[in-house]
Amino acid sequence: MKLVTAAQMRRLDDRAVAAGTTTAALMEKAGLGTARGIKAFLCGVVGKRILVLVGPGNNGGDGLVAARHLHSWGARVHLLLLSPRSNEDINFTLLRQQGVPFAGPGPEALSSLAGLLARADAVVDAVLGTAKARPLQGAFRETLLAVGRARLNSPKMRVIAVDLPSGLDADTGTSDPAALQADLTLTLGLPKRGLYSSSGAELVGRVEVADIGLPPAADVDTELLTSGWAAAVLPNRPLSSHKGTYGRLLVVAGSNRYIGAAYLACMGACRVGAGLVTVACPASLHPVLAAKLTETTHLPLPKGPTGHLSAAAAGPLAEEMPAYGPVLIGCGIGQHPETIGLIQSLLPRLNGKPSVWDADGLNNLVSIPSWPQLLPSETVLTPHPAEMGRLSGLTVEDIQKNRIEVCRDMARRWQKVVVLKGAHTVVASPQGQVRLSPFANPCLASAGTGDVLAGAVAGLLTQGMTAFDSASLGVYLHGMAGEIVRTRLGEAGTLASDLLLALPEAIKKLREDEDVP
After folding, report:
1. d(C-alpha 205, C-alpha 165), whole Å
2. For strand 276-282 and strand 248-252, is the pairing parallel, antiparallel, or unpaired?
3. Residue 483, SS3 per DSSP
4. Where are the beta strands (DSSP E) in 58-190?
5. CB under 8 Å, gap of 24 or more: what pairs does 508-517 form?
6. I want to staple 60 with a disulfide (CB 3.0 to 4.6 A). Which of 55, 262, 330, 416 is the partner?
7. The pLDDT of residue 319
8. 3-class SS at 71?
9. Is the CB of residue 257 less than 8 Å from the CB of residue 331?
10. Cα(439)–Cα(424) distance, integer angstroms
11. Residues 339 and 366 sit within 8 Å (Cβ to Cβ)
12. Cis (ω within 30 of 0) for the bond into 105?
């Protein structure tokens, strides 16, 4: 599903009008879609008190159309106008003719707000939508703050945002301090980038898309990953298959301090269906990992005096690599001059072999000049924001302010697939295409979950997927597994290893076309 900026959405609206759809027809569809979404969310609206906050422009107009339909379905609708509506506004005129009560605009609107909120079952935020371009002030700010305070005293009151919560930037997801926390956001036509970026994820609640009949957005190069896409690209599992059908993966991982990272990465690859996984680790760790990794094969490697893999390991790795498909490098290998020596020796020996680089694999690359040119073209880099900062030279703050464009820019600059981890993980291709994860889950905010993700991406790459598709599907399956774990265990106390069994369950759900929990 395409994700759009505010400017892209305006262009799509203009195209629809140029193709013969009137602005009034678009607004009618938007308002009706909004009303239907509200009715479903509230499990019916008959007799329910719904306060509609009506701002200027099209967002307010969409709210008026929704109010008309809700009124006709038996809701007890009250309008609060935060700016004047024209005498020629047909939607406002129809509501007045139907006797729908309203207050404002002006000081009397704010004076009546407390009483209206005390009785409201739901508040509809149709104030600004994508029009927010400056800090909220005046009646807009005071009204939204008042609704926010009322929610604290009325936990059963629901807030529904039309298009996006007022005060939320449609492009970056940054938000005004007065922006409302929505329980449901009914975004119109196509979802906006800001709903899945930065603080936007904290404000939007559940996101649903109301179709308003827009033309195809063929020129939009950012999209939201969906279960339909993921199910369509899952690698096939023929009845006549054997382990060789699903590829051989070499995982270079582990050090004295990070033994578990090697385990989690290898099992992540196994649990998404890789045919054979070999763990290449310091020889001193082999007895421990051999006890935990019974399904993998093992390649003990020379270590330096500190227990890290050293440049001496490059020779044995180079001898073994022709027997494997992709290589996963970095999970738990540590940062040490010995390890940097290994990476320097290994890079020219990859010979174009697809690879996935995670954790200290990335951190060690920073010390190697011209590292992007030394990596194979089918390479996936999986940094979290701090690692992205080391690779790019940007601050974490700057990265988090505009995750989509930073990830896109770095993928183009490095000519590699980049996975910027975090809530709503971003995946970007060297050609500038971006895919965004629909998942933001505190279950994934614990040590080791990134190793599972790196293993999942590498395991899919091993099965013959492209780097961009394997990264995208790995991110989706990892997020879906997190949702399964959260449903089963809750948000606190879950472990990275809990994701491992949930990965094949996620694949099963996709194949059987079951809803994501």
Report:
1. 10
2. parallel
3. helix
4. 76-81, 102-103, 122-126, 158-162, 184-188
5. 509/480, 509/484, 510/227, 510/230, 510/231, 510/234, 510/480, 511/231, 511/234, 513/231, 515/227, 516/227, 516/480, 516/483, 517/483, 517/484, 517/486, 517/487
6. 55
7. 95
8. helix
9. no
10. 5
11. no
12. yes
175 neighbors 199 (Cβ within 8 angstroms) = yes
Q: Report whether pLDDT(108) > 80.
A: no
pTM for this entry: 0.93
Please give the average per-residue pLDDT across 19-47, as a whole number.
96
Question: What pLDDT, on a 0 to 100 scale, did the predictor assign at position 516?
Answer: 57
Q: How many CB atoms lie within 10 A of CB 93?
A: 14
Question: What structural domains and CATH numbers belong to the chain?
Answer: 6-220 (3.40.50.10260), 243-511 (3.40.1190.20)
CB contact at 8 A, 173 and 166:
no
HSE at residue 174, side-chain half, CA atoms within 13 A, is: 13
Displacement of CA 197 from its chain's centroid (Å): 7
Q: Residue for token digits 């279960």? A: 227
Average pLDDT over residues 371-375: 96
3-state secondary structure of 341: helix
**Confidence tier at 161 by pLDDT (50, 70, 90):** very high
